[in-house]
Design brief:
- The chain has about 70 residues and is an all-alpha fold.
- The chain has a domain of about 40 residues.
- About 60% of the residues lie in helices and about 0% in strands.
- It is built from 3 helices and no strands.
- The longest helix is centred in the middle third of the chain and has 18 residues.
- It is flat, with a radius of gyration of 16 Å.
- The model has no long low-confidence stretch (mean pLDDT about 80).
- This is Antitoxin.
- It holds the Pfam family MT0933_antitox.
- It comes from Pseudonocardia dioxanivorans (strain ATCC 55486 / DSM 44775 / JCM 13855 / CB1190).
Length: about 70
């Protein structure tokens, strides 16, 4: 069996600690917003894509609410 490569190990670690990675991305996004005022939408988009690319997605966001006109799934 071949040894696990660096990238495989990094991906595994990101998946195991996705909540911490998401918190770090949020902090980096906040710092970027301070430095590059007026680009909040672009920064939020980049942070969102980074969260999707790591682990299980954004673990720091609140769960999505079902639309008001539809009952929640059973």
């Amino acid at each position: 069996m071949a040894a696990m490569g660096f990238m495989d190990k990094a991906k595994e670690m990101l998946g195991q600690h996705d909540d911490k990675v998401d918190q770090g991305l949020d902090k980096a996004g906040d710092l970027a917003k301070e430095r590059f005022a007026g680009h909040d939408d672009q920064i939020d988009g980049a942070v969102g894509k980074a969260k999707e690319a790591t682990g299980e997605g954004d673990t720091t966001a609140a769960p999505a609410e079902p639309p008001a006109d539809q009952p929640p799934p059973a």
